[in-house]
Amino acid sequence: MTPAPTPAYRRLSVEERRSQLLEAALSLFAHRAPEEVSLDDVAEAAGVSRPLVYRYFPGGKQQLYEAALRSAADELQQCFDEARVGPLLPRLARALDRYLAFVDQHDAGFSALLQGGSVVETSRTTAIVDGVRRAAAEHILSHLGVTDAGLLLRMTVRMWITAVEAASLIWLDEDKQPPVDELRDWLVEQFVAVLSVTAARDPQTAALVQALAEDV
């Protein structure tokens, strides 16, 4: 019997190899805090040598972490990219479903993303995380149909996003309790509640609260 031919080795392009290494790093960061992941771990997970990891990330672990952080941030930003179809609150619930699914999937990596670890926090990592928050706020204001949000409304939306982050971290600490659908509904209710508080002081927010009550 003629033996089956050995598949030809395919050299990966620069972008393909970089993506492979980032995917391996993200997979590790999803289950372990950054300080517990070494470059040797990433090399082993990707099936490459440690020098090859350094070739693509000469800055070492910090550079790799920042690149993985950007990749995770891009995915988180997309969580709030919901089509503007139908009532707002169900749209917000669907965005939260994706956000919480990311939190659930990445677990320790999500905690590390927001809380940092022994990996040195820099202005770049801070900017990456803050970019997610700002993008989420812009998406929500867009869904509210607001093009020129006043200070109190902007503060309210960003405060709620911070509350979502904090609740997500506590949810992980509490062994992912309550059930994720209950957490999602509670966060949506909190959004309406904080808007209602601001509405007592801000006519722009008051008009939005009234619109939400009619948007059923």
Automatic annotation (TrEMBL):
Keywords: DNA-binding, Transcription, Transcription regulation. It comes from Streptomyces coacervatus. PANTHER family: HTH-TYPE TRANSCRIPTIONAL REGULATOR RUTR, TRANSCRIPTIONAL REGULATORY PROTEIN (PROBABLY TETR-FAMILY)-RELATED. Gene3D superfamilies: Tetracycline Repressor, domain 2. Residues 38-57 bind DNA. Pfam families: TetR_C_46, TetR_N. This is TetR/AcrR family transcriptional regulator. The keyword Cell inner membrane does not apply. Residues 15-75 form the HTH tetR-type domain.
